[in-house]
Amino acid sequence: MRPAERFALRVGPSRIDGLGVFAAEAIPQRRKIGELRGEAISVREARRRAKGRERIHIVEVSETRAVDATDSTDALRNINHGCAPNARLQISQGRVEFYALRDIEAGEELTCDYGESHHEGRLTCRCGALNCTGRL
Question: How many domains does the chain have?
């Protein structure tokens, strides 16, 4: 089994929310950063688990399947939302992959735009971007 991360990452306190994931080395633009791994579950179960949680580590990968990274030890489970992200999430053959949108410097927090989320607009966004939408 390949490691979940392709670059050195560290987890630490985030100015955005709780824990975040930070580049421990420079990451070039368009390079795969790594994958989010977790328990494969149904979308129905994912939505049941997400209800009432403030922090959700679940990604729907198809109309019927989802990945729940709640119990994962992979660093990327801590990637926070950002309205001006430096990474993008891509679903590929049921895998949740992250790619650098631009060159990312060592020490920089990784963020991605969650898009539609299980929060359904009820959670205040704290990313701090100039173009922040204000809600998740």
Answer: 1
